[in-house]
Model the fold of this input.
Amino acid sequence: MKDSRDAVKNDKASKSSAVSSLPLILDVDDFKGDFSFDALFGNLVNELLPSFQDEETYSSEGHGSGAGGNDALSNGHLRGDAAKSAAPLFPEVDKLLGLFKDSYKELVDLRKQVDGRLNNLKKEVSVQDSKHRKTLAELEKGVDGLFDSFARLDSRISSVGQTAAKIGDHLQSADAQRETASQTIELIKYLMEFNSSPGDLMELSPLFSDDSRVAEAASIAQKLRSFAEEDIGRQGVGAQPVMGNAAASRGLEVAVANLQDYCNELENRLLARFDAASQRRELSSMAECAKILSQFNRGTSAMQHYVATRPMFIDVEVMNADTRLVVGDQGAQASPSNVSRGLSSLYKEITDTVRKEAATIMAVFPSPNEVMSILVQRVLEQRVTALLDKLLVKPSLVNLPPMEEGGLLLYLRMLAVAYEKTQELARDLRAVGCGDLDVEGLTESLFSAYKDEYPEQEQASLRQLYHAKMEELRAESQQISEATGTIGRSKGASLASSHQQISVTVVTEFVRWNEEAISRCTLFSSQPATLATNVRAVFTCLLDQVSQYITEGLERAREGLTEAANLRERFMLGASLSRRVAAAAASAAEAAATAGESSFRSFMVAVQRCGSSVAIVQQYFANSISRVLLPVDGAHAASCEEMATAMSSAETAAYKGLQQCIETVMAEVERLLAAEQKATDYRSPDDGIAPDHRPTNACTRVVAYLSRVLESAFTALEGLNKQAFLTELGNRLHKGLLNHWQKFTFNPSGGLRLKRDITEYGEFVRSFNAPTVDEKFELLGIMANVFIVAPESLLTLFEGTPSIRKDSQRFIQLREDYKSAKLAVKLSSLWPSSS
Done:
């Protein structure tokens, strides 16, 4: 065992000595670039590890299998004799240890070499840095010197530049002065030429007669003229001149006169050339002349000359054609629709002509906007104005045009059409171009004379239309009356009244006239206050017309009621008439009653149409008038007040007529009651026959009459008017029946018939929807019980219904047994004052 350990140690020592004899394997270059420790380690051990790897590979291929293979234990020790004969598991370990030790020594040596070299490099860097700093300091001093030199150079350059600029300015000024002096000398020379004898232009320089140098001649002439006029002006405002100055001034006046003559002659010559070029349509020549002429009064004469020579301003046939196109042939009546079409065609033609002229003006004149302004102004002031003068002949408000020729309305329609179409023309011309011209304002000025009296003309036209319509209605009524021939007076009155009845169609026509007038007010009035004033005036005309028309219609309807009342009074039945006369009077009374019923219906129709007419006016006010008046303070409220005032006369007539209607109805009710009511109706004999429970004939006739005649009232009246009328009629009916029944005597069976009549009347008046009237008839029904109950039950009746106690005293006296039963004594306790 000891021998084996020694052998191992010797082996290791031999191996380490073998390793130490290896050559140098490390160098500084191995650590340069992309250094890798794994690569360094591999290079050190690659020569030793392959033999060990071969042994590993050999043992893993199975040479150590069998019984010997199982002798190796997991802890590395061998069993039995195998441990003695087996070789070491890693025999190269000693070589590697030696290799690593040598490498470590070499690495230490390399580090020392590197450290030495680093120290040498630091010393060299320090020396070089010192040299570099010294060089930089020297360079900085040099650069500072260069900057100073550049600054001095820049300052010098600036100074030289300023001096050069001053010299240039002086040179330029001197050149300008030289040029001015040269031009002045030249101008003085020309001025002396014009300073010859007055009117002598024959000795002028060729410049002023050379057609190729017209522009230059015009420029020089204008300069000479301005200079001479300024000199004369200075002499005029200065001190008293001496003789030399006076001579010079007179000389310049001669020059000014000659220059004026020359400029006039030159301008006329240029205008002639311009006209010739215009005839040939040579736009370039026209533009050249226009440019030269712009030096004379800014070219105003050329512009005006061009516009004035346009065919539409000088050709009489063009103006006549305008009139024929719009107005038509002489003697023919022009209509607004034809005039509208004619104006549209004419104004379209004018717009197209102006548009063509605009193209020429843009190509010829230096200031085309000024020329367009003159052209458009000439079109409106000459061509359009001439047409309007022939189209719109202002009528007199004293002697209005007759309606057969269209009346004043025709003129107003023509005015509206012309105004509207001319406004469209102004907008079209504005789109084409008219410079700085206020074309809309100029158009307004064309119509200012026509609009001065417009509100009065509109009101006069409405009054004329109203009077013409009334004349037409009266003529129609007269024709119908004449066609009917001679008829009875009552029938004739009723027929005439029906033909002159209020017509909603006529009122609608009034509104249509007014609506057309309001549209013209809106067209002519641009300011809200002016528009509101004109609209109020026109609407007031409508109120006056409707108020007068419906009031007259109601009055005519009232005339029928009045005539029917007169007929009734004329044929009232007397007490001492013969049977024959009484029969004739009764027949006449029937006719009067028929006339009254007819007039009642006519008046109710008039009231109904009156209400419809007022509703139409109110609706028109709300839809069309209010929106115009509301923006102006107080206008809407004032117009509402005017409307209420205007309708008050119609309301008064309607109220009086309704009162007459009640009188008419009650008169017929009284006549029917007097004629049909018999004494036996309420005092039937006790003959054992069962009492009649039907209403009396008089009641039936009265209810039938009321149902028939009030049918028109139910249809015509509405709202509060209907309620007030029926309530008044119900009260009058109640009072009339009470007075009528006071004439009769009642027995119990008659009381039952009276109660039946009261029930019939009560059921009818219930259709009035008047609670106070219903209550009165209900009390009448209760009061009728005083005729039915036995005398001894009257006290019980009055105690049970105290509400009838006051009015029942006079009814009790109508009982047949009032005296025989001594009811006055028995009931004295109820009415102590009467006893």
About this structure: The two ends are 183 Å apart (CA to CA). Residues 1-22, 62-85, 237-249, 486-498 have pLDDT under 50 and may be disordered. Residues 93-194 form the longest helix (102 residues). The chain has 29 helices and no strands.
